[in-house]
Specification:
Layout: H1 18-34, E1 38-39, E2 45-47, H2 48-54, H3 60-64, E3 67-71, E4 74-78, H4 83-92, E5 102-111, E6 123-132, H5 137-153, E7 159-165, H6 169-183, H7 192-200, H8 211-217, H9 220-227, H10 233-248, E8 254-255, E9 267-275, E10 283-289, H11 293-296, E11 304-310, H12 311-318, E12 326-331, H13 335-347, E13 352-354, H14 361-371, E14 372-377, H15 380-385, E15 387-392, E16 398-402, H16 406-410
Helix pairs in contact: 1-5, 5-10, 6-9
Bound molecules: adenosine-5'-triphosphate and magnesium ion.
């Protein structure tokens, strides 16, 4: 019969890769908890409307990448990111009534219909943070610190933090007008995507990867607008203070005026963390401030800032973590005795296995030496004398002890 294959752009996370995933998940819990964040888990699917409004209908995510389907005349979408879902939950559960800041973290699968390539899947995982209720740049700083310290805890150091400010809706509007004016003469030469961005979301023009468009944007009059400082005094002050906080902590960053991020909801701070040892898909973390999103989704006006990291990209940087060997392998031809002893050891948190197929002694010993640190031998003699022989499989050292002392031996 024909075998059914895995879907394009999706991957099994196999048992031998699991140590790395557990490591990423445990470190996330450990580091984010230190900052006072609590985990939240929201559903994998939500109303399509949530993403259209929450991510923005001028974005690639909403326009091209969503897995949308109908059920009972409702349009549903597999979440392409988790910020919109977390904000929905924040509003629905009245979390604005809690004392600010409210710090939430999440991890889980996201779904985007994009062209699969190295570092880009259709189902992938993100781990992220959202901090609600603080408009001061101290929250931006803390969010960036959480990202950096999490990456450090994973042993990743070869990273670059890119930082930019998008201003507020008021000063950004002015920038958009100037940008459109200076690009207008070249409009017909831009790629199809940029032609539609030009009207719908001109900031996203800066994000275009097409070499033809890049060449146009490199022109001096266009660069003058891009590189010029457009932000209003309040936004400038916010950005300056954030940079001072980062400087105080010795956090290195690079200003990237082309960094606009893919989502519509950002204002003021945006940042990305790139790995210097990944290929073209080298962004491991993207984040920023989104002060209008909670209100736009029907909640109380609540400032917020957060980030998301791609866990497959992190995993590829962490490399392989060898599985720990089982501590004990019980060797016996008496299945009942073996069952009893393995359960006793497991009850004391000692990882233990025995040969479920009850093969010959030598075969069991062979298997034990491949997978375990100690063989715990229960032969006929041991059973009759109420003893057990423990063999260190690394050193081949062995000794026979009282059956009742076995737990003590391992402790
Ligand atoms: P890009 O410009 O590369 O498409 P993005 O702006 O869509 O990135 P975000 O939505 O900010 O990415 O997601 C945050 C992080 O999630 C990215 O930096 C990346 O590490 C990871 N990520 C995003 N899309 C994918 C994907 N399709 N496969 C694997 N990881 C992804
Ligand atoms: Mg994308």
């Amino acid at each position: 019969m024909a075998i059914i294959k895995i879907q394009k752009g999706t991957k099994d996370i196999l048992p031998e890769e699991m140590s790395v995933w557990h490591f990423m998940e445990e470190k996330a819990n450990e580091i984010f908890t230190k900052y006072g964040a609590k985990e939240i888990r929201t559903p994998i699917f939500e109303a399509t409307e949530l993403f259209a409004r929450g991510v923005g209908d001028t974005t690639d995510i909403v326009n091209k990448e969503m897995y949308t389907f109908e059920k009972s005349e409702r349009s549903l979408t597999l979440r392409p990111e988790n910020t919109a879902g977390v904000v929905r939950s924040f509003i629905e559960n009245g979390m604005h009534r809690l004392s600010a800041p409210i710090k939430l973290w999440y991890k889980g699968p996201m779904f985007r219909y994009e062209r699969p390539q190295a570092g880009r899947q259709r189902q992938f995982h993100q781990v992220g943070i959202e901090v609600f209720g603080i408009k001061q740049p101290s929250a931006d700083a803390e969010v960036i610190l959480m990202a950096i310290n999490y990456l450090k805890a994973l042993g990743l150091n070869d990273l670059t933090v890119e930082l930019n400010t998008l201003g507020c809706p008021v000063c950004r509007e002015e920038f958009k007008t100037k940008l459109k004016a200076v690009i207008k003469p070249y409009l017909s030469n831009l790629c199809e995507d940029c032609q539609s961005r030009y009207e719908k979301n001109p900031l996203r023009l800066l994000d275009c990867k097409s070499p033809e468009c890049q060449e146009i944007f490199a022109k001096s009059e266009i660069q003058a607008v891009i590189q010029g400082d457009f932000i209003c005094p309040e936004c400038a002050e916010h950005f300056k203070t954030l940079k001072e906080y980062l400087d105080t902590l010795g956090i290195k960053y690079e200003r990237n005026k082309l960094l606009v991020r893919g989502l519509d909801y950002y204002n003021r701070t945006v940042f990305e963390i790139k790995s210097n040892s990944l290929g073209s898909q080298n962004a491991v973390c993207g984040g920023g401030r989104y002060d209008s999103l909670v209100k736009n989704l029907g909640g109380e006006d609540t400032p917020a800032v957060g980030f998301a990291m791609g866990m497959e990209r992190l995993a590829s940087l962490i490399g392989k973590i060898e599985d720990k060997k089982t501590t004990a392998f019980v060797i016996s031809n008496d299945v009942k005795e073996a069952l009893k002893l393995t359960e006793e050891l497991r009850a004391e948190n000692i990882t233990t296995e025995f040969d479920l197929s009850n093969k010959k002694f030598v075969k069991q010993l062979e298997k034990a030496s491949k997978t375990a640190k100690f063989a715990v031998i229960l032969g006929e003699d041991e059973i009759s004398q109420n003893k057990v022989t423990v063999k260190n499989l690394d050193t081949a050292e062995q000794k026979t002890i009282e059956r009742s002392n076995i737990i003590k031996f391992f402790k």
